[in-house]
Batch of 3 targets.
Target 1
Amino acid sequence: MRKYDALWAYIQGLNEEKLIFRFADVEKIAGTPLDHSFSTYKKELAQYGYAAGKISMKSQTVLSIKKESD
C-alpha cells in the first residue's frame, strides 16, 4: 500500500469537480500527515481524474484539488 492510497480512494469516491481539504482532513483520511513528500505523490491523482492545485506547507491550511478535463 502506498502512502496516500486511502486518500486517493476517498477522492475517487466523491466524483466532485473541486475539492478543498485542510491538512488535518488529509491526515484523518489517509492515516498519515501531509508532508513535503506529497509533492511527489500528488502525481498519482491523475490516475483518479484529479490534479492537485497550489499547496502551502507553511500555512498548512488548505489543499485544493480540481478535476481534470476529459
Note: The beta strands are 18-21, 50-55, 63-67.
Target 2
Amino acid sequence: TILSAAFDADRFVERAARSVRYQTMPDLEWVVVDDASRDDTCARIAALAAQDSRIRLVRAPVNGGPAAARALGLAAARGDWGAVFDIDDAMEPWRLARLLETSETTGADIVADDLRIAPEAELHGPGAPFLGLRADEGPRSIDLAAYFDGNILFGPERQTGYLKPMFRRAMLARHGVTYDPRLRIGEDFAIVAAAMACGARFVIDPAIGYRYGVRADSISRVTRPEDVAALIAADDDRAAAHPMLRQGATGAALRRRRAAFADGLAYMRAVEAMKRR
C-alpha cells in the first residue's frame, strides 16, 4: 500500500499518479487521504479512483495535518507493506520493487532509500542526493542510538528522519504503532523510532529511488515552536513507555536529542518575544 496525505494538492495529483502507475511491482494499491482540502484535490483523486481500482480515496473529516492523515491511511491499508509517498513528490519506477527486495535480503522490518532533492519545478531534473551514500557499500542497518543522534534539531548531519520509510504493517499492528496525530513535522521519524523501540530492524538502501520536491510553502520548511514542543512530548512519551530508551547508548542519544530540541525551542520562543518587543 502506497500511503499519501493530500491537502490542497490538486496540481500534484496527476503527476503523483504517474509515479504510482509506472511502478514495476504490479501488486499494489494507492491510498490517498484527502485532509479536508479546499481545492479540487478530492475530486481529482476520486476521478482517478473511478478509472483505476487500485486507487482508493479516504476523506478526513477535518484537517488534522500529515500525521493524522497518514494514520487514517495506514488504518485503511490492505497491503503487507506500507510505503510513504508525499503527493507533491515522485518515485522512480523501480523503487518499490527495490525496497521489497532489500527487505527480503536483509530481513528488515523498515526500509528506506536515499532522496534526490530538487526544486519542485524541476522535480525530474538531476537534483542532488540527500545522504549521498556509497552504492558499493550496500544496504546498512541503523540502530536506535544512531537514529536519535542523526535527527537533532539544527544538527550538522543530514537527518535520516526525512527519508520516506516502507514498513511491515503486521509489525506495526503487533505493537500498536501508528502515526502520532499531535505531530505536524517529524511524523515519519516518530513512527520509525516507535517501531524500533519495539525491536523493529531499520535498513537504509543507498539507491536513490525517491524524488523530493523542495517547496517554499512546505510544512517541513516552516518550524514553529508548538511543532517542536510536540516532538519533545512525543520523545518523552516514548521514553516513558520503553525503559530501554532511558538506558545505555540509546538513552544517552535520546537525551542529547531532547536537549538540542529544548535549546531550539527556547531560541524560537526568545525570537518570538523579541519580535513582540
Note: Residues 14 and 44 are 8 Å apart (CA to CA).
Target 3
Amino acid sequence: MKNLIEIGCKSEIGAFLVTSEKNMRYFAGFSTLAIERFAGIVIPVETGAPVVIVPKLEETKAQERSAFKEIRTYSDSENPAVVLNKVVKELKLEKGVFGVEGTLPFRFYRMLVESSNIRAEDASATFSQLRIIKSEEELKTMQKAADIVAGGIKAGIEFIRPGVSELAISSEIERTIKENGGESIPFCIVLSGANSALPHGETTSRKVDAKDVVLMDIGAVYDGYYADLTRTVFVGEATKKQREIYHVVAQAEEAAIKSVRSGIKAEEVDTIARNVIEKAGYDKYFTHRTGHGLGLEVHEEPYITQGNKTILKPGMTFTIEPGIYLPREFGVRIEDNIAVSENKGRMLSKLAKELTVI
C-alpha cells in the first residue's frame, strides 16, 4: 500500500476508493460477496487509516480476514451512502479528489460524488501498474494454481475415450481441480473434432469420436490467483497434417517462451511466435494474441500482442498460447503460464506438452 500512497501524493489524490473484488483482495487480503450491495475500502493518502465498508452480512468475514481493522457496516434496511458520507467527513475528504476504478458502477460513483463536494478520477492505470509486478509470494501462489490446473488436465486426458462427451470430460477436470484445492473454476472448455477449431468455443454434449482432436482450455483460481492452461491431444491417431500443425504451434510457443526476459517489449514476444507460424504458412489461421497477463484476474496487463510496447520486467506474469485453427476441421493450441525474471522466462506451469495420442 506504500506505493499507492506515494502515487496519491504525487498526483494530488486525497484518497482511493477500492470496490472491485480483485483490488479489495490485493490491498486488504479478502473480498466480499456483495453482489448488488456496496462494498469498498476508502484509502486516504494523508488523513488516517483505511476504512472498510461492507454489508452487515459480510462483517464477520471482514473482521477475520481484512488487513485493515477499521470496519463499518450497514444493514439491508440502511443506505450505504450514509456510511460512506460519514467516513468521508471523518477523514476530512469532503472536498478531495478520489481515485476510483474505471469499473465502478455508476450508482456507486453517484453515491460518492453526491454525498459531498468530491471529484472522482479514474485510477485504473494506477491499480493495474501496482499489480503488474508480482512478489515472490504471489508467484508461488500462481505456481500452485498452475499445478492444480495441470492435475485437472491430466485427469481429463486419462478420461478421454471414444464415446464420452465434452461435458463429461469437463466435469472430470473440474472435479479433480476442486478435490485438489481449486477455489473456483471460471471456465473449463473442452472442444472435440471440428469444435476445436473455435478458439473460444463452448463445451457441448458432443461425444468424442475415434481420430478426434480434443482441446482443453482450463482456468482456475487458487488463493485468489489464476492459472490458465491449454493442451491439445489426439484420439486413436494423429494424421500427418495434424502432426505438422501441432509441431508448428509447439515451436511457436517454445520460441516465444525462450524470448521472454527483462527488457523485451510485449509485442516482440508476440512477433516471435507469429513469425514461426507465418513461416509455416498458417499465419491467417492464428487469429488471436500470443498471450495475456495473469494474476488476480485471468486477463490483465501485460497483453502479449502487437502494438503493446510495454517493456517486460521481473515479476510480470502472463500466458503464452499460440494456436492454429482450421475452420470446420480442427484446431491446436498450447498454453503455459510464464513469469519474467532478469534473463529469461520462469515457467509457472509444469505440464508435458509432447504430442499425445490416446
Note: The longest helix spans residues 136-159.
